[in-house]
Design goal:
- The chain is mainly alpha-helical.
- The chain has one domain (2-97).
- The chain has three helices and no strands.
Length: 98
């Protein structure tokens, strides 16, 4: 019973990750049209990496593919990208303040 619930949850995670990746790609196209959305570009890349990390986690839960290297490197990359996006957002906010 518990394993079937876990499987259903993992399938839902994969579906939601694909939806998040699709949303990120549509936001990426929008961010190229408007200049003040420049800080969103790295944030969107981080969202796509998060979707990849969730899919890898689901694959590991089903014992299909397991890589401890990727499960540590991808979250670190996401954190670095989020910090860079925050830095760009601070710079953009200072432009609007002046």
């Amino acid at each position: 019973m518990v394993s079937s619930i876990d499987g259903i949850i993992q399938i839902a995670v994969i579906f939601l990750s694909v939806v998040a990746g699709g949303t990120a790609l549509s936001l990426f196209r929008t961010s190229h049209k408007v200049s003040y959305l420049k800080p969103w570009r790295p944030l969107i890349i981080g969202l796509v990496l998060f979707a990849v990390e969730e899919v890898l986690g689901a694959l590991a839960a089903f014992s299909i593919y397991r890589s401890p290297f990727l499960t540590h490197v991808i979250p670190s990359a996401i954190l670095l990208i989020l910090m860079y996006a925050l830095f760009l957002q601070i710079i953009e906010a200072q432009k609007w303040r002046m």
